[in-house]
Write a structure and sequence with these properties.
Pfam families: YgjP-like. It contains 6 helices and 11 strands. The chain is about 35% helix and about 25% strand. The strands form 3 sheets. The protein has a 4-stranded mixed sheet, covered by helices on one side. Bound molecules: zinc ion. The site of zinc ion (ZN) has 3 residues, from loops.
């Protein structure tokens, strides 16, 4: 990390819709950072660099920037959730207030208007309450994926051998071309359902084309013409 030199001026740039703050400093090299959890991009540049030079330097690192922002979007924004009443939790892109009820048996979760009601056993700590909620999330996303595959597999004329849900740190989904099995990130249950649909179609498209090449994107355009907006939504910090 460079020493935090005093900023001589600062400017804003847009690199393919990604807002970037440029800070001109008395330094030798350009430095780039993506801040968590906001995904804000900041570049520190030597004072003799023009905005044009900075812009083309950023465009060369565009793919890296996208990857970093995707990685940050996947990290839970509030790692310190306590699983207590009043806390906000997400489900299909909406924010719900957690409402904890204590009962001797029958831990469960249900939705009630804007409330996510979690029945916890009296001795459960945050970790155990999280397990109850994750189990429910897993059931919900499983049901949704089954429905989506029911629509998309016949529509695309391609069939997976099955799917699994798991917590993944760096990807929304993967597809094992050999076994034709699809894996989806449990975190998708917190995003709007259009995001899950986008990832399902993306992974199914891999059954036609292994690589992210022109043929792959042409197929995506055909199946899901608004996939780019959905991808953006998936990686948004909401
Ligand atoms: Zn892919």
């Amino acid at each position: 990390m460079p020493k935090e030199g005093k900023s001589l001026y600062s400017a804003k740039l847009l690199i393919n819709d990604i807002p970037v703050t440029v800070k001109s400093k008395r330094i030798k090299n350009m430095y780039l950072r993506v801040r968590a959890p906001s995904g804000d991009v900041e570049v520190s540049a030597p004072k003799q660099c023009s905005l044009n030079e900075i812009e083309s330097w950023l465009f060369e690192r565009h793919d890296w920037l996208i990857k970093q922002r995707e990685r940050i979007a996947m990290q839970p924004v509030q790692p310190e959730l306590q699983f207590v009443s009043g806390e906000e939790h997400k489900f299909w892109g909406k924010v719900y207030t957690l409402d904890i009820a204590l009962k001797k048996r029958g831990a469960s979760v249900s939705l009630n208007d804007n409330k996510l009601q979690l029945v916890s056993l009296p001795h459960y700590d945050a970790v155990q309450r999280k397990q109850v909620l994750d189990r429910w999330y897993r059931d919900q996303i499983t049901r949704e994926v089954e429905a989506l595959l029911g629509i998309w597999q016949p529509r695309m004329g391609v069939y997976s051998s099955g799917f699994g849900i798991r917590a993944m740190k760096t990807r929304w989904g993967t597809c094992n071309i050999g076994s034709k099995k699809i894996w989806l990130n449990l975190e998708l249950v917190k995003k709007p359902v259009e995001c899950l649909e986008y990832v399902v179609v993306h992974e199914l498209t891999h059954l036609f084309e292994r690589y992210h090449n022109a043929r792959f994107y042409a197929l995506m355009d055909e199946f899901l013409p608004d996939w780019r907006e959905r991808k953006k939504l998936t990686n948004q910090f909401i």
